[in-house]
Design goal:
The chain is mostly beta strands. The protein is 13% helix and 36% strand. It has a 3-stranded antiparallel beta sheet, covered by helices on one side.
C-alpha cells in the first residue's frame, strides 16, 4: 500500500453555515471499482466523481476536528483533480459513508 502525508487540518475553517454546493452522494461499488458520485439532488446531473483505488486512500481523508467532515479528491477522465470538503449533518450518515467504502475493500 502507498502511504501518504495527511494534509487535512479541520473543518472549523470552512463556511459550514453556507455551503457552496449541496446535493446527493452515491457510493457505487461494482467489481473492483468504488466511486463516490456527487449529483444534483433534483436532476441527477453529475457534479463530480471520486474514484477510490485503495483504502485508506488520499482520495478520501477525514478532517482532524470532526468525524462528520471529509476531503475527497474529485477527478476527471483527463487526469485533472481537485480536493473538496464534504460534510454530513448527521453523524450516523458519516458512519455509514465510512462503512460502505470499507466494506468494498474487504
Amino acid at each position: 500500500k502507498q502511504w501518504y502525508q495527511r494534509r487535512v487540518r479541520g473543518a472549523a475553517d470552512w463556511n459550514l453555515g453556507s455551503p457552496d454546493w449541496s446535493g446527493r452522494m452515491r457510493i457505487v461499488s461494482k467489481g473492483d471499482r468504488c466511486i463516490i458520485r456527487l449529483e444534483d439532488k433534483v436532476t441527477g446531473q453529475l457534479f463530480g466523481e471520486c474514484p477510490i483505488d485503495e483504502w485508506p486512500s488520499i482520495a478520501v481523508e477525514t478532517v482532524l476536528d470532526s468525524c462528520r467532515y471529509f476531503v475527497i479528491r474529485l477527478s476527471d477522465v483527463s487526469g485533472r483533480y481537485a480536493f473538496i470538503g464534504i460534510g454530513f449533518t448527521d453523524r450516523g450518515d458519516s458512519f455509514d459513508f465510512n462503512v460502505a467504502i470499507s466494506d468494498h475493500f474487504k
